[in-house]
Write a structure and sequence with these properties.
Blueprint lengths: L1 H25 L4 E7 L9 E4 L4 E5 L4 E5 L4 E6 L5 E7 L4 E6 L4 E6 L5 E3 L7 E7 L4 E6 L4 E6 L5 E6 L4 E6 L4 E6 L4 E6 L4 E7 L6 E7 L4 E6 L3 E6 L5 E6 L4 E7 L4 E6 L3 E8 L2 E9 L8 E2 L6 E5 L10 E6 L2
Length: 329
């Protein structure tokens, strides 16, 4: 009888341990693990990680602050980038590119010494920017011109324009020759051929209104579109079919996808980082990590899997500007 009780107890232990594993599997376990103090005047918009070069690039209105994320210290800056919004990195050419919204240019800079090497003119009011490895091109999404400008990453020359018929925000590349971009004022995602510069598809975001952020799971061909009405729209990147619509925090401005961990992120102005993932073949919100109010943009480090979010207590306290590091302890 005693032996039966021991066996039954052992079975219960295994059962509850199983429940514990299931809970751990659905909870990604992220939190703010570090704060990098930066300070300095100026607003901010997008930031970008170079995972191999171990640099974090943060836009600061008239310049780009460059941070060593591992040491947690500022190591330099890219100067004279008026109205900068975003930064794209082309490691094979050892070049970086900034979208300068105020003078409609791109500052091309050397990744080693951070000095400007060229400044081509692009479309009006460039906002988001990305580097497409398949075509070796950099694309600026021009909010004032309702179009996208394509630059050759090696030469820095403008090679063409894509008419988008709406105001673009951020985008993503599938690495196979197609680029996707949100049209925030049309509630649409546009897919275009990155070589031919022709629109291939134009898809409504359904319940998602004001699409701003975009991440992509290239392996599963899924787009994760964060929208200003507190929705994340998950779309099939072939035909634009909406697969799932999930709740996220308020005031999103950016989204990203971690291919190794299979997690999508939305950074939200209300001081949350929404994390979405697959659970039993269905996308679900796995967590809403507390960050800091106003932290609406982020950069995902695919090497460490950490997420970096610019933060400031208030605009009257520029000395409080910092980078929140969200990850697993």
């Amino acid at each position: 009888m005693a032996r039966m009780r021991i066996v039954a107890l052992a079975a219960l232990v295994v059962l509850f341990a199983g429940y514990g594993l299931a809970a751990d599997a659905t909870d990604p376990g992220y939190s703010v693990i570090k704060t990098i103090k930066v300070g300095g005047e100026g607003s901010w918009d997008y930031c970008t990680v170079d995972p191999e070069g171990r640099r974090l690039y943060v836009s600061r209105a008239t310049r780009v602050i460059v941070i060593d994320p591992d040491k947690g210290e500022v190591v330099g800056e890219v100067k004279d980038t008026p109205g900068v919004h975003g930064i794209a990195i082309a490691p094979k050419h050892r070049k970086g590119f900034t979208s300068n919204g105020k003078d409609s240019t791109v500052t091309i800079f050397d990744l080693k010494d951070l000095k400007e090497v060229a400044r081509p003119k692009v479309g009006t009011g460039p906002d988001g920017i990305l580097y497409d490895t398949a075509t070796d091109r950099v694309f600026t999404f021009n909010g004032g011109g309702n179009d996208a400008t394509a630059l050759d990453a090696e030469s820095g020359n403008v090679v063409g324009t894509v008419k988008l018929e709406g105001r673009p925000e951020s985008g993503a590349s599938d690495g196979k020759g197609t680029v996707f971009v949100n049209l925030v004022n049309k509630d649409e995602v546009v897919a275009f051929d990155a070589k031919e510069l022709k629109v291939k598809g134009r898809w409504a975001t359904g319940e998602g209104k004001g699409p701003t952020g975009m991440g992509m799971d290239a392996a599963k061909n899924r787009l994760f579109v964060s929208c200003r009405n507190e929705k994340m729209v998950i779309m099939d990147a072939d035909k634009g079919k909406v697969i799932e619509t999930l709740p996220i925090g308020k005031g999103t401005d950016y989204a990203a996808f971690d291919p190794e961990r299979g997690l999508a992120f939305s950074s939200n102005r209300d001081g949350t980082l929404t994390i979405v993932g697959l659970e039993k073949d269905k996308y679900k919100v796995l967590a809403n990590v507390k960050t800091q109010e106003g932290s609406k943009t982020m950069a995902l480090d695919t090497k460490t899997h950490n997420v970096y979010l610019p933060a400031m207590k208030s605009r009257t306290e520029p000395e409080t500007f910092a980078i929140l590091v969200v990850g697993k302890k």
